[in-house]
Amino acid sequence: MTRLRRLFRIAWVFCRYRLDTFLPLAELPPPLKVFFLLAPWHLFPKPKLSRGDRLRLALEELGPVFVKFGQILSTRRDLLPDDMAESLKNLQDRVPPFPSHVAREIIETSLGAPVADLFMEFTPDPMASASVAQVHAATLRNGQQVVVKVLRPGIERVIRQDLALMYLMAGLLEKYWSEGKRLHPVEVVADYDATIHDELDLQREAANASQLRRNFENSSLIYIPFIDWDYTRKSVLVMERIHGIPIADVPALEAAGVNMKVLAEKGVEIFFTQVFRDSFFHADMHPGNIFVDVSNPADPKYIAIDFGIVGTLAPDDQSYLARNLLAFFRRDYRQVAQLHIQSGWVPPDTRVNEFEAAIRTVCEPIFEKPLKDISFGHFLLRLFQTARRFNMEVQPQLVLLQKTLLNVEGLGRQLYPELDLWSTAQPFLESWMRRRIGPSGLIKSLQTHLPSWLEQSPEMPQLVHDALLQLREAGPTEQQNQATLELLREQQVRSDRRWRHGLAVIILVAAAVIGTQPEAQAWVERVPLWSWALFAAAGGLVLRGSR
Q1: pTM of whole model > 0.85?
Q2: 125 an active-site residue?
Q3: Out of 93, 162, 284, 420, which one is annotated catalytic?
Q4: What angle (nearest 5°) sits at the alpha carbon of residue 130, between those of residues 128 and 135?
């Protein structure tokens, strides 16, 4: 019944703001066309508001899940007309606030003291009001200017209702839509479920901000405000107040003399640094969450706020994504096709030649063009349509990354339309790959994995022997499997010898690298002498066992 009431509410808002006028009726099948022409919303008078304001008000009325969707759309000038995008910009920090006395009650309940005792000054009127929380200016007793973020009351119940409806719709899609099983709509909703619930815990957001601040400490790219943990709880967050020009206020940035090319390129570098260097990225980079420090207009710096949504990538996804992008940049479409197959993003029986040709058809038109002539959104749509022919499955772990990349493109388009996203990103990715597979990467990998390898090496022969024994005792076909067992034993002996030789080579290479790398030499000086003795003994055992 709750879902039905919510569905009725959505239909009511749809009718009230006459959103049916946005639908391409001429392109609908005849039965749907007749339905929409005879639908009951025609009984409602068409509002006098502009179409952009109607869409914005409808999303606001439907709540935070729909507001988040509108925030994403507001950065996509190539997907929406300018008037609608301008209206949706107001969703980013101008959602109607809840009463200030309610905010004070939440603060006092969470922090266990009256607001007058906690702060020297507290501004009742909110600075900004967003879909999940609103923000008030305040001054701590020590004179530090801060902002106080307060979670909206009752927001969890509203989100729970919307998510229940989304799960219902996703389940129906997956069951009855021909593309449902491939696109995994239920997994996508589950991923969004986890994301938005993380955003409802302001302590988690504070932890995200602290991590990002450490990652970019003393950086010339971006500044992350510090968190006051003494005044932070699940429903209340107190953070340093920052001062800057909103990233969307392009006229103000130009009036301040900001180098827009440098600013746009820094935005791309920040994104790729977070994704590939840190594997921890701000995944809600819409214009309402980004400001610019213009104290040095020739070398401007980003300032980020609102860290409720962050994304991470597993090392395998990081590597495959970087290699895919580099292959795109180099127009090596065969490698792109092979990487998709190796990663499991497309079925293993996919014909590489056909997939390569399809990718080439999509990618060739976009290269050697400035960003103003390229719609990355349209490119993704064409790539998605092409991948459907090869049964490519949606990767839920990449959904946040794709959304963030679209936001970065939208910001770049507003700041510096001539920016070439591809040429800006390529040098960064090439440098990252060199560091990953070069001497410093080898040293880091050895520091991480060598103790585990040495610990497991005595157990490997026994594990292989146990597996062979289980195979022999699996059934009455002992004679039939005897030849196979003998072959496996021989392969095990050869594999064990190769493994030991390989480990010996790694030790020798590591020694050579340590002798030539300054950072390695510094690390060696910190290692006790007895550790090197054990290391040498282990190497001797490895070499002895390989004979």
Answers
A1: no
A2: no
A3: 284
A4: 40
